[in-house]
Write a structure and sequence with these properties.
Layout lengths: L3 H15 L6 E4 L14 E7 L2 E6 L3 E6 L5 E6 L12 E6 L3 E6 L3 E6 L4 H4 L13 H9 L6 H6 L9 H11 L13 H15 L35 E5 L6 E5 L14
Antiparallel strand pairs: 1-6, 2-3, 3-4, 4-8, 5-7, 6-7, 9-10
Helix pairs in contact: 3-6, 5-6
The protein binds zinc ion.
Zinc ion binds next to loops.
């Protein structure tokens, strides 16, 4: 699933291609918007909020999309053929005189008044890559539920927006914190959150994310998707499990030696 840095990069590129331009073609291939045509409308800007994408138009409306697991926006020079998947997976086409932006497999494609954006992104905590990133605000939100596991708190977009299972796993390894550690027992929460922001920031231009600083294949992560392989620091075998509230369990990875479970680790 794309995490905050991937969405940020997608929106930056979309904004470069479409921002300030007038739509010469507009198609929404979703039932609720099938008859909506914004041809002639200008796109003021494209911005990310956490993992959400917001296309703001000069007619007072915003297109809200979200990638979830499989979605993607692709940008093509006008006239070039589209290659992001079969046609039936296309949910939106926004074209200008120079570029075609094509939204594939978007599970969320909706048009809302720009004034009502808060209804779709207002619940989000501080955006790790937003211009208004607020470290203290994120920490306050996480600390509001001290008995919850840090693993769950980091994925909760209402606490801070942008972290998924990849950054959660790597960040907790870097800080030596077991994913099930209760928030109240995390030794240096401020440093942990700060480091999370730095990881996303450092990766915002990279197509292949790396937390090790090594960009070679199979060297880019410490623990994520490395279950059963030796820890890069201590050679102990990496463990994995799924945990979280019922129905929202997500996979975590950790080194039992570098990230020892505290006695109070929360068991589900
Ligand atoms: Zn280790």
């Amino acid at each position: 699933m794309p995490e905050g840095d991937t969405v940020w990069r997608a929106c930056f590129r979309l904004n470069e291609a479409l921002g300030g331009k007038v739509l010469t073609r507009c198609e929404f291939r979703v039932p609720t918007l099938a008859t909506t045509d914004l041809t002639g409308v200008r796109i003021d800007e494209v911005v990310s909020r956490g993992k959400h994408q917001l296309f703001r138009f000069d007619n007072g409306f915003t297109l809200h999309t979200h990638f979830r697991m499989e979605g993607a926006w692709r940008i093509y020079p006008h006239g070039r053929s589209w290659s992001g998947g079969p046609d039936f997976q296309i949910r939106a086409v926004l074209a200008t005189a120079d570029h075609d932006a094509v939204g594939y497999r978007l599970p969320v494609t909706e048009l809302i008044p720009t004034a009502d954006e808060d209804q779709v992104v207002g619940h989000l905590g501080p955006d790790l890559l937003g211009p208004d990133w607020d470290l203290d605000g994120a920490i306050r939100r996480i600390e509001a539920r001290p008995g919850r596991t840090i693993g769950e708190a980091l994925l909760d977009q209402r606490n801070l927006a942008g972290i998924g299972t990849f950054y959660r796993a790597e960040l907790l390894f870097l800080q030596g914190v077991h994913p099930r550690t209760p928030v109240r027992d995390v030794a240096n929460l401020r440093r942990l959150v700060q480091r999370g922001q730095q990881l996303l920031y450092a990766n915002r231009w990279r197509t292949e994310q790396s937390t090790t600083g090594d960009l070679r294949p199979n060297r880019r992560t410490y623990v994520f998707e490395r279950p059963g392989l030796p820890c890069r620091r201590c050679k102990t075998l990496i463990r994995t499990e799924e945990f979280g509230t019922l129905g929202q369990e997500r996979r975590s990875y950790w080194c039992p030696r570098c990230q020892p479970a505290s006695r109070a680790a929360v068991q589900s």
